[in-house]
Amino acid sequence: MFTGIIEATGSVANLTRVREEWRLLVSAGGLSLADVKLGDSIAVNGCCLTVVEFDEHQFAADVSNETMNCTSLGQLKTGSRVNLEKAMQATSRFGGHIVSGHVDGVGSLVSSAPDGQSIRLIYEAPKELARYIAGKGSICIDGTSLTVNAVNGAQFTVNVIPHTQVETIIGEYVVGQKVNLEVDLVARYLERLMLGDKAANEHGWKEQAGGIDAEFLAEHGYK
């Protein structure tokens, strides 16, 4: 489990094929690995990866083909900068929001414009994720916890303050940039809970087709 508060930025030292999958070697930059053990989790651009090798300066993680295909990690190259966060401890201060490190989809940056000292960014999410993104709710972009300003269909807006621009890679993004998105975990569970007994019936509800709609809400007493 993570908080979406980036601890440091690192860079890709190497990305190679190993036994028909991938081995990612990350230079940890300012991230201390002094308390890291084999098997620990570190989020790389929002993807929860397992440490399989490490020394004081870098760590390696195995990445499945599924992860490479379903996240933006497949676009990384040697030298690419990445956001890093170690898994939170039970005694840690919870500064962001609940982040699992399980990427829901890949979005893209539509526009970037200055807004005072901040940057106002508009992203487009995959259409199937749009229903989970709400104004003033939380969204995780490449592992960074951000507040959604507004939503327009599958597009949403966030503001990035100067501190976040410096401490993460988000200040380097250009229009068209692909990013990992993780929606609010609570929204996903809420949707599933509202299905009730229908959740176990693959033919009883059109979850994959459209999610919660007016018909579903009326059936459950919402007017």
TrEMBL record:
Pfam families for the chain: Lum_binding
Alphabetic keyword roster: Repeat, Riboflavin biosynthesis, Transferase
CDD domains referenced in this protein's UniProt entry, alphabetically: Riboflavin_synthase_like (cd00402)
One Gene Ontology molecular-function label: riboflavin synthase activity
Reactions the enzyme catalyzes: 2 6,7-dimethyl-8-(1-D-ribityl)lumazine + H(+) = 5-amino-6-(D-ribitylamino)uracil + riboflavin
GO terms of biological process kind: riboflavin biosynthetic process
Superkingdom as given in the UniProt entry: Bacteria
Lumazine-binding repeat positions: 1-97, 98-194
Family matches, as Gene3D superfamilies: 2.40.30.20
Positions of the Lumazine-binding domain: 1-97, 98-194
Top-level class of the enzyme under EC nomenclature: transferase
Family annotation (InterPro entries): ATP_synth_asu-like_sf (IPR023366), Lumazine-bd (IPR001783), Lumazine-bd_dom (IPR026017), Riboflavin_synthase-like_b-brl (IPR017938)
Pathway: Cofactor biosynthesis; riboflavin biosynthesis; riboflavin from 2-hydroxy-3-oxobutyl phosphate and 5-amino-6-(D-ribitylamino)uracil: step 2/2
Function recorded in the entry: Catalyzes the dismutation of two molecules of 6,7-dimethyl-8-ribityllumazine, resulting in the formation of riboflavin and 5-amino-6-(D-ribitylamino)uracil.
Subunit details: Homotrimer.
Protein name according to UniProt: Riboflavin synthase
